[in-house]
Amino acid sequence: MISKLIDKITEKNAPIVVGLDPNLKFVPEYLKQRAIEEKGETLEAAADAILAFNKAIVDATYDLIPAVKPQIAMYEQFGIPGLQAYKETVDYCHEKGLIVIGDVKRGDIGSTSESYAIAHLGEIKVGETSCRPFDEDFATVNPYLGTDGVKPFVDVCNRCDRGIFVLVKTSNPSSGEFQDRLMDGRPLYEHVADKVKEWGEGSMDGSYSNVGAVVGATYPEQGEIARKLMPHTYILVPGYGAQGGKAEDLKAFFNKDGLGAIVNSSRGIIAAYTKDPYKDKYDEKHFADASREAVKDMIEDINGAL
Amino acid sequence: MISKLIDKITEKNAPIVVGLDPNLKFVPEYLKQRAIEEKGETLEAAADAILAFNKAIVDATYDLIPAVKPQIAMYEQFGIPGLQAYKETVDYCHEKGLIVIGDVKRGDIGSTSESYAIAHLGEIKVGETSCRPFDEDFATVNPYLGTDGVKPFVDVCNRCDRGIFVLVKTSNPSSGEFQDRLMDGRPLYEHVADKVKEWGEGSMDGSYSNVGAVVGATYPEQGEIARKLMPHTYILVPGYGAQGGKAEDLKAFFNKDGLGAIVNSSRGIIAAYTKDPYKDKYDEKHFADASREAVKDMIEDINGAL
Known about the structure:
Two copies of one chain form a homodimer.
Chain A: H1 2-12, E1 16-18, H2 29-39, H3 43-61, E2 67-68, H4 73-76, H5 79-95, E3 99-106, H6 110-121, E4 124-126, E5 129-131, E6 138-141, H7 147-160, E7 163-169, H8 176-179, E8 182-183, E9 186-187, H9 188-200, E10 204-205, E11 208-215, H10 220-229, E12 233-237, E13 261-265, H11 267-270, H12 287-305
Parallel strand pairs in A: 1-2, 1-13, 2-3, 3-6, 6-7, 7-11, 11-12, 12-13
Antiparallel strand pairs in A: 4-5, 8-9, 10-11
């Protein structure tokens, strides 16, 4: 699966992923009102509004980008209707030829992790029929429970040609609280990076492994170290833009082949119409056009710095 | 919310929680066949089968127990229909007067954790109407991202009188890989325990905090240490029974007041009809009766050891 992602990145010349995190406050009023008129003030209405929002952004950007990363929490907060919108978003993005990275950050003990892996990347038999529950291409995984929590994801990746990105060093301000604490003279995240490398050794797909890592753009020094510790690991890099990560800091996350990292922006793209320099040019009816311009600017910004 | 759980534990004289983790292989054939006849070999059929299975177990045990702990991965693996069955299980257990601990192990950066907290413990406004997406009473939370990943859960707990259990030392064989590594001479899980204590200080509800911890029954020595580090923290203890945790090991998790811990069993209860000493006495049509007897035995076993 990582080779498919790399092909798309190369084809579009865009090492970026658009985070489809449709917080209701980013969704234009007219979309919300239309949904509420149809479905009342219900979770179903919220779900309809975010799905319409997503589809417009995908329609306006899919030719420019290799992949999207829906953040499932933003859908789960609208209960079952929200998760239905998540699933429809995944399917819609697949129809448009996009790779879908499910940002689900799941992780549990062995048998339970297997169920999460099946839910997002695998298939399950009901009687004699195989069903694909959510059917993303990649999922993000939390490593706190150790190898037997991650291994079932790797097994499903190997069986179904899917991939994962394991949290190594997250982009948030307090990520260092545990992740930077020293163990035998090295921070926890470096030990996790060692494990990610090891977990991915049996999952090579071309020059890179289907087992990737997450390292935040907000921590370029740690990105450089992570890059060296895991030479064949693709790095998903959140935190560019709204969270403060800058293009010049991203170089550290890439290999000399120009590959090895894919940079996410969520709010910076999907809420572009509410932010400088787009908000004066686009009203809320043209939010998707603002997203398209923001994608072009992001690609130029990152390719310029690399 | 923790005071409500303690009241129920005291009323039933049962510091236990039944894990509703309906892996399809535990569900009797006749329930699966019935569902497949109605819905075909679909995720909907699987969801119908696990919901019928859960309801029968709840009907047979609700008068004996204070709480249930559905493991959401077991539902998520059946996609949207599975999550619908999860939600209906939560609602059904509430109708029966049970406290519901959603074993969701969510955790993300701040704004995203807030969405997970809203999804499971809080409410969200659509227009002027407040909606409760999943509406569990407690949720489990992963601490790897640090304070700003956990704080939004604590805030929602304080606002909506709900609770969380934060993973400290998990029950699985490889939990020590990161959790037992020494940082400044103390294992990571002890540092997490310190933080759990701190995170819960503003959430006291009687003698205990609404911010609890998860420590596996399979690690009684670590349980004793965790108990001392977090005197006002309720400990959710998985790993009893099928995973190897024994009643005599559980003493370490409790305080002198006889409170402070609640012990989970999943497979040992819900799949009792497939296991010794119940399988010779109960056929699959009477699986729920086997669960009832297993609950009684578990309560006797644990109360005997305390």
